[in-house]
Write a structure and sequence with these properties.
Shape: elongated
Structural class: alpha/beta
Number of strands: 5
Low-confidence stretches: 346-361
Helix content: 55-70%
Mean pLDDT: 87
Radius of gyration: 26 Å
Length: 391
């Protein structure tokens, strides 16, 4: 009798824990109902949750459905799949957090994210393309930049995106700031559209090494006679204009100095920094909109790399159809705060020791050096003539 009681108790425990399962996702507001509520509510609430305006969401949804094979399944609509993806990448939410929000299983959340990611990768091939060879409006319409930068079609730079690499590769992915990241190269137009992206490089890799890989093996081509504006770390090339080393350059340095350029090299560096600022802004707005890029990821590394491409493609679409500048303003505000802190550090640093100049680079080609000098001298001649005319 005692043994029967014990066996009955064990059977009851087994049934309670493994046979009779209690429903987990029991909220009355299911995922699709929540999306409908957002669409009918204040657009700012929609933007806060899904990182774009409702009209942009519907445009993107229609595009992915009609052209890039995003489909509804038996139980989950394409609309909910896209919203799930945006909820996760926009606020760096976990799979478990998305399960609670959309009242879905972990498998369903993962499947929805992968399907949207695949559609966005197909979109990337269409919307992230090399720019026109025409003189950009932002150059042609600005007398400070034209004709000096008339052959420049955009700017390029690298940025670090948080990464969770395989354990065997963690040392290589740890960057100079101490955290693990991908070193992502991107080129953009002056109106903040991505035209080339290369993701997946280790955080410890130099920017110049990533650029060389892009040019030699990864399909990044610069048309003959055209140039990009780049940071000094890339080295001066005939198709890449960089600033003079050892000369004040970054805009935050100019803000701290509060004075006019004193020679041709300083003027060139100032205008180069002003025009190249677009690449810093595009990285800023991308990370402000899609928080997943600023936190270690729970996804496989290949998915982390593909997310960068997908989010850059989505950025281009948003820039085409949305007039809201909310995230651009937030990115600019964050940059101003960083620049202010930099200025304060530099002020304290100068009070303790003189600032050191960076020696000139040895990788400048003679042709590119002559071209840069001619641009700087032409700028200086125009600048001094304008100042004299005002006196």
């Amino acid at each position: 009798m005692r043994m029967q009681t014990i066996l009955a108790g064990c059977a009851a425990w087994w049934a309670a824990n493994y046979v009779i399962k209690e429903a987990c996702h029991t909220s009355a507001l299911k995922g699709d109902e929540w999306i409908s509520e957002l669409l009918l509510g204040n657009p700012r609430r929609f933007r806060n949750q899904l990182r774009m305006l409702p009209s942009t969401f519907m445009t993107l949804l229609k595009m992915l459905q009609t052209k890039y094979s995003l489909k509804s399944s038996r139980f989950v609509s394409a609309r909910e799949k896209l919203a799930t993806f945006l909820y996760v990448v926009g606020q760096a939410n976990s799979n478990r957090g998305a399960q609670e929000r959309f009242q879905r299983s972990g498998w369903t959340i993962t499947q929805s994210i992968n399907e949207v990611l695949d559609a966005l990768l197909r979109l990337y091939a269409v919307v992230v393309t090399l720019p026109s060879k025409d003189i950009p409006y932002e150059i042609h319409s600005n007398p400070k930049m034209f004709p000096f930068f008339e052959y420049c079609i955009g700017a390029l730079d690298g940025t670090h995106v948080r990464a969770t690499p395989p354990p065997s590769a963690r040392m290589a992915f740890r960057n100079r700031k101490g955290f693990m990241s991908q070193n992502v190269l991107a080129a953009c137009t002056f109106d903040l559209r991505f035209v080339y992206v290369l993701a997946g490089w280790e955080g410890s890799a130099s920017d110049a090494r990533v650029l060389n890989d892009a040019l030699m093996t990864k399909g990044f081509s610069i048309p003959d006679g055209k140039m990009y504006l780049g940071d000094a770390g890339y080295g001066l090339r005939k198709n890449l204009l960089t600033p003079y080393r050892g000369v004040r350059y970054h805009l935050r340095e100019w803000a701290n100095g509060n004075q006019r350029p004193q020679n041709a090299k300083e003027l060139y560096n100032l205008r180069h920094a002003q025009q190249r600022n677009c690449i810093e802004r595009i990285f800023g707005v991308l990370k402000k909109r899609f928080k997943v890029l600023e936190y270690p990821s729970e996804y496989p590394f290949a998915t982390q790399v593909n997310l960068v491409y997908a989010l850059c493609a989505m950025h281009n679409i948003i820039m085409e159809v949305e007039s809201d500048s909310h995230f651009l303003q937030k990115a600019d505000e964050a940059k101003r705060k960083r620049d202010k802190k930099y200025q304060q550090r530099m002020t304290r640093s100068r009070s303790r020791r003189p600032r050191r100049s960076v020696p000139p680079s040895d990788d400048c080609t003679a042709e590119a050096s002559v071209l840069r000098d001619s641009i700087a001298n032409a700028m200086w001649q125009q600048y001094t003539s304008t100042l004299q005319a005002r006196q």
